[in-house]
C-alpha cells in the first residue's frame, strides 16, 4: 500500500511531499522538503514491520548527505559501517524539518504511549546534517492528539494526528494539506 502526504509550514514558506509505502515486511518513507530559506532536501527512512527504524538517508540539495543504519535496538552506524556510540540507545530518528518523523514513535509504541514515555532520538538538524542524541517524551491525549516534549530545550507541542499516526497539525510549525 502506497500513500502520499503533503505538509506546508505555518508561514507558507516551506512544503513537504511524502511517499509512504507499507508492505508486509518493510515500511519506506521517501520525502522531499523545501524549507523556509535556501534549503531543500530529500530523505528516505526504512523501518521494519514494527515501525522500528533500520536506516535513514538525508541528501541536502547541492550539498551534504548522511546515511545511518541501526539494528532497531539502539545501536547505530554511519554509512561506512562505523559505530556511533553517542547515539547508543536512540530508538528513533527525528529530522528537524519534517513532521513525519513524529509518526515513528507514535506507530512503533502504539498503546504504550497512554502514559508519558521518555525516548532517546537520533536527531538530525537540517541543512548541516549534524546528528545529536536528543531526549524527547510523547503522551497520548484524547481525540487523536499527542503531547510532544523536547526535553533538552523545554519545547512542547500538542500534535493532532490521523488514524495512521501521521501529523495533521503541528501548531506553529506544520499543517497537512494533502
Short description:
The protein is mainly beta. It has one helix at residues 103-109; strands at residues 2-9, 15-22, 26-34, 40-48, 53-60, 65-70, 76-78, 92-95, 117-124, 131-141, 145-150, 155-161, 167-170, 174-176. It has one domain (2-176).
Provide an overview of this structure.
The longest helix has 7 residues, at 103-109. This protein has one domain (2-176). The radius of gyration is 15 Å and the shape is globular. Helices cover 4% and strands 53% of the residues. The two termini are 17 Å apart. Strands 7-6-5-4-3-2-1-14-13-12-11-10-9-8 form a 14-stranded mixed beta sheet, covered by helices on one side. The chain has 178 residues and is mainly beta. It is built from one helix and 14 strands, in the order E-E-E-E-E-E-E-E-H-E-E-E-E-E-E.
What is this structure's SSE topology?
Elements: E1 2-9, E2 15-22, E3 26-34, E4 40-48, E5 53-60, E6 65-70, E7 76-78, E8 92-95, H1 103-109, E9 117-124, E10 131-141, E11 145-150, E12 155-161, E13 167-170, E14 174-176
Parallel strand pairs: 8-9
Antiparallel strand pairs: 1-2, 1-14, 2-3, 3-4, 4-5, 5-6, 6-7, 9-10, 10-11, 11-12, 12-13, 13-14
Instruction: List unreliable stretches of 5+ residues.
Output: none
Shape: globular
How many domains comprise the coordinates? 1
Helix and strand composition category: mainly beta
Task: For the largest sheet, list the strands in their spatial order.
Answer: 7-6-5-4-3-2-1-14-13-12-11-10-9-8
Helix-strand sequence: EEEEEEEEHEEEEEE
Please, what is the average pLDDT?
A: 94
Number of helices: 1
Largest sheet: 14 strands, mixed
Q: What is the terminal-to-terminal distance?
A: 17 Å
User: What proportion of the residues form beta strands (DSSP E)?
Assistant: over 45%
Number of strands: 14
Helix content: under 10%
Radius of gyration of CA atoms, rounded to a whole number:
15 Å
